[in-house]
Amino acid sequence: MRIVRKHHRVLVQGITGKQGTFWTERMQAYGTRIVGGVNPKKAGSEHCGVPVYASAREAMSADGGFDASILFIPPLGVKEAAMDAIEADAKGICILTEHIPVQDVMYIMAAAKERGTQITGPNTAGSVTVGECFLGFMPAFNERIFKRGSVGVMSRSGSLGTLMCQNIVSAGFGQSAFVGIGGDPVIGTTTRDALEALDHFEGTDAVVIVGEIGGTMEEEAAAYAAGMHKPVFAFIAGGAAPVGKKMGHAGAIVMGDKGTYRSKRTALEQAGVMVLDTPSHVGDALKGALAK
Amino acid sequence: MNFEEYAAKPLLGAGGITVPEGVVVNSPEAAAVAAEKLGKVVVKAQVPVGKRGKAGGIQLADTPALAAHHARNILGMTIGGLTVGQVLVEQQSDIKHEFYAAVLNDPVSKGPVVMFSTEGGMDIEDIAIATPERLHRAEVDIRRGFNREQAVKLVGALDLDGANSKVADVLSKLYDVYRENDAELLEINPLIITSKGHVVALDCKFVMDDSAVKRHPELAARGTPEVLSGLEAKGDANAVKYIELDGDIAVLANGAGLTMTTMDVVRHYGGKPANFCEIGGEAYTKGKVALEMVLEKPGVKSLVVNFCGAFARCDVMMEGLLSAWEELKPELPVFFSIAGTGDMEAIRLLKERLDMDPYPDMDAASKAAVDAARRAGAGS
């Protein structure tokens, strides 16, 4: 459920808001199977052509239920909305919201772990299963950025992940799937989880990791990459960032010698991952690895 | 958000953890008055950084005159780049043992972790390196909390000079204070045992999760505001993330990852970025104020603009930037790279209004900006 497919039934919590409406329409147009939305105040009505429920639990008990939920909910409302989806036994939840209190996020993570719900995010731009469906606010429909191919991409940053995807397409390749994992310090799907999901995703011949400074996720992912049989490439943002400053993302901060560019680059290189100096180098790297 | 010791300790007190009696003052005279009342005191610089003792910012004073003397020396001192404006005058404690206790957010276990060490008084990083076997940790299920029994399990088997039960009590209370105040870190270092067997929190470090500040407006008012440069404060007031750096190539991009990467690429081609400035997410309509800020920094020689639209639309960002451009009429050379949602419209706007074309990618745009800065430097 870390990679959503076109047969998956998707619920949109916060469907009636401005962003919820705008992106629900785009997800529907691309092929995402939206089966309903949630807004307790508008329960019983219809929005974007699907029924609006009072809660995720109500949506689950409706005909067919749902597999995954995506949240267009402001920061202080996320805990309640996510707990609703977890208690409804959603298989996956995608949380786009930035600036959720971390203790709320940890509460969600503990409950999700117990119920077996996989969380993606918070603070992610979403994910794209290229040519099938997408979740979140990704420019999936822009053919200069997303084109069906065999490269799996994962990113902590939406904008940088998008740029990497565009570089892949302009080099003549395409993607199998893109997984945005989010820029927060505590997130549900880690770099390692996303790498593993892409490794097992059908039609994926190479994986590109877009990481950034802060935390130890890239180092943990390196341990998995060392055992992979597919070529893995990585770009790590923030090599030029000063120590001790949060670089826009709450998770992108170097403290002392922890979370540094050097530590991540070394760990990945020791695992056999080719680390790119700039995102533009991805084309040449793929040409070298995937040329038959 | 950081809190200084004097602002953090009352939270421990309210949570039932013993702290020394003390007052925060900002003059030597007031320090003497406080010492009259408290007896033998310790005078402690109030800045939210570590190593205050090593810098001479913590001094013992057995008389009011000596308290005034130390306060005079410490006030105005610079510690870790910060000027000391206040000192905490606190009753001296007689220290038999020094321990370390903390609760923090752990990204790996995705929950709170309670930490305890019998090696108090030194930095936790040093404890972790010097005596890792003496650093004890418990992962907590945040839905259930950290009760006394769990705390006893963590410290019950340690030699704490008979204070195990009292220490366990403090750890459980510390966890509750962490939880109630949305801390990302709540640390007592040292947690001491006195010769009479009392357990006292001699110091306290509290960092509130920035995303939870809205939930605690009254408490947040007592926090220490981040030290911002004039431009950074302007960014803060306009909800645009701006960080001032020491280079001469201005950077304007959307999204944290892309902005950091633009800085990296500028450096890769031998240039030095002048700033981090991003207008992604909800701030993507703020092209105008962002341009004003990046141009305002003295000594910038060129500008690279790197937009890659996802949620943020390139055309909206470009519209804001162009209207600021027409108003400010800057003369420095600018280099664009544009991709993603709204890119075609943004490229059209750029052609119409500035008669310019973007570079094919961010590498080309960044390299051109580096070359232009070099030429400007050679000419000046």
What does this structure look like?
The complex is a heterodimer of chains A (292) and B (380). By secondary structure, chain A is α/β, with parallel strands linked by helices. Chain A folds into two domains: 111 residues, 3-Layer(aba) Sandwich (Rossmann fold); 149 residues, Rossmann fold, CATH 3.40.50.261. Chain A contains nine helices and 14 strands. In chain A, strand 6, helix 4 and strand 7 form a beta-alpha-beta unit. The longest helix of chain A is centred in the middle third of the chain and has 14 residues. Chain A is globular, with a radius of gyration of 19 Å. The model of chain A has no long low-confidence stretch (mean pLDDT 94). Chain B has 380 residues and is an alpha+beta fold. Chain B folds into three domains: 71 residues, ATP-grasp fold, A domain (Dna Ligase, domain 1, 2-Layer Sandwich), CATH 3.30.1490; 126 residues, ATP-grasp fold, B domain (D-amino Acid Aminotransferase, Chain A, domain 1); 150 residues, Succinyl-CoA synthetase domains (Rossmann fold), CATH 3.40.50. Chain B is 38% helix and 25% strand. Chain B contains 13 helices and 18 strands. In chain B, strands 1, 8, 9, 10, 11, 12 and 13 form a seven-stranded antiparallel beta sheet that branches. A four-stranded antiparallel beta sheet of chain B has the order 2-7-3-4, covered by helices on one side. The longest helix of chain B has 18 residues. At the A-B interface, helix 4 and helix 5 of A face helix 9 of B.
